[in-house]
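The protein record quoted in full:
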Amino acid sequence: MHHLSRNPTPWTSYAFHPYESLVEALGVVLIMFVMPSHPVAILIFQTYSTVQNVYGHLGYELYPQN
């Protein structure tokens, strides 16, 4: 759903269908049951994932290819 945005902004990384949100959240829960991790490790992973998603939706490349 968020790929329908013509001019991406950092906010478009949060524009998705509620079902997509549910599937992604359940994926994290499944990973936690299969591979138990420390809560701080999960927090770091989620923070890194959020930063990567916002970076990917900036609308320009900070490090463009040559």
